[in-house]
């Protein structure tokens, strides 16, 4: 995994796949449905999530994900740990603080290696910065049940397999969409989390090649 970390650390300092990669996992209107707003307004809330990678027993990279508690925004959905920034925080500081609050990650055990492209989430008016961090070993999790129902990990390799990627027609609000998602858990991995993750996978795919 050391080679992967060095590759990502270098690649994250260059031009990123960006919106093109994100949109590949965006729900697409079937007819005259609402088009996703990608440009953040000036009053958008700054937010961050932590994309935390660590090696499993076989030395393969795994990704940390959470299932959000049903009583909060986007409850019952898969997400990265994260939330809104506090005054004066950098994206990395926000991501690490939120990860500690939600799943008990010790910030000192995480090495930040860079950031992916920002993603604007219209429903919550959040401009989210995905922060990529590395842990040398599987973290010890301590779940905050008011925010997180479950924390789990998935191998990056499994997300490259087409058998785990599906597309279905869903009713979202008043419109119908074709929704791409990864079928890797009891609930689908889709939406903003999938969009951010797909940019990371573009980089990982380049590493594997």
Order of helices and strands: HHEEEEEHEEEEHEEH
Given as residue ranges, the uncertain stretches (5+ residues, pLDDT < 50) are: none
- The CATH superfamily bears the name Nucleoside Triphosphate Pyrophosphohydrolase
Q: What is the CATH fold-level name?
A: Nucleoside Triphosphate Pyrophosphohydrolase
> Per CATH, which architecture?
Alpha-Beta Complex
Largest sheet: 8 strands, mixed
Q: What's this entry about, in short?
A:
By secondary structure, the chain is of the alpha+beta class. It has five helices and eleven strands, in the order ααβββββαββββαββα.
Model description:
The protein is an alpha+beta fold. The protein has a single domain (2-16, 36-160, 193-208), classed as Nucleoside Triphosphate Pyrophosphohydrolase (Alpha-Beta Complex), CATH 3.90.79.10. It has helices at 2-11, 19-23, 91-103, 156-160, 191-208, and strands at 28-29, 45-55, 61-68, 78-79, 82-84, 111-115, 119-121, 126-134, 148-155, 165-172, 175-182. The strands form 2 sheets. Strands 2, 3, 4, 5, 6, 7, 8 and 9 form an 8-stranded mixed beta sheet that branches. A hairpin with a 2-residue loop joins β10 and β11 (175-182). The protein starts with a helix and ends with a helix.
